[in-house]
């Protein structure tokens, strides 16, 4: 099995098929990212390995449905935890925020819309009731699903095993679709978070926060500003961030600003820019703390980022 290795997280994101994602590293363990892709008849299968905790957001990139199956590590999707018996089903036009808190790997399965429509018609399921989001499929079914996909993709750990998809694409596709079809009869329960007597639409809250972060100077944005634009208390904001990302708003905002600073460091030239000047533009006043946190997050010093991207 040929694995594609990436040293840069954003190169890795662009290598992910069927999802158009933006994102950021939240906790780096090793600066390495891996993918492996395989066509199984009309289906697309991709394996991914991430060298740390990440936060991603985006949409499905393709005419069909995607099943995201975490293999190891804790995963959250739109504020809901994926348990050991869960998958994430992505459908066109829906937005997804997916976060992992540590090193992890996963499988993505893409199924073309013409096959999805046949499955829905066969089971008399309307498009409004099709699975979308986190779906609990049961312990036995998820174990069977993972086992089947591992064998088909050649991820069994046995170097002598040949991927099933290379042996019989038709049979492999039938095996996968039989399991997926059993999932379609279990539409997910749509939940809103209730706090006291008030129902909070967390999707709208996250949209307001992202809009503020993307349209206003980052050095002027603090956690209190995020709570204000979200129209919730600081305590509620913290709960939402823990549910979505597994980290506090303070930590999230620091990471967000750190990634924005890294982007400018990559784009700037060392002859006309300094690390301290760039850091101050994002509200980092203590250079030593910034440099230490930066190195922990990206595996290199900010000065290295500034210099290395302009070497001949």
Helical region count?
12
The topology string of helices and strands comes to EHEEEEEEEEHEHHHEEHHHHHHH
Average pLDDT number: 88
Strand content: 25-35%
CATH architecture of the largest domain: Sandwich
Largest sheet: 10 strands, antiparallel
Regions with little confidence, pLDDT below 50 for 5+ residues:
190-195
Q: What's the β-strand tally?
A: 12
Task: State the assembly state of the protein chains.
Answer: single chain
The CATH topology of the largest domain turns out to be: Jelly Rolls
Using the CA coordinates, give the radius of gyration.
Answer: 21 Å
The total number of structural domains is 2
CATH superfamily of the largest domain: Jelly Rolls
The helix/strand class is alpha+beta
> How far is the first residue's CA from the last residue's CA?
34 Å
Highest CATH level, the class of the largest domain: Mainly Beta
Net shape: globular
**Helix content range:** 40-55%
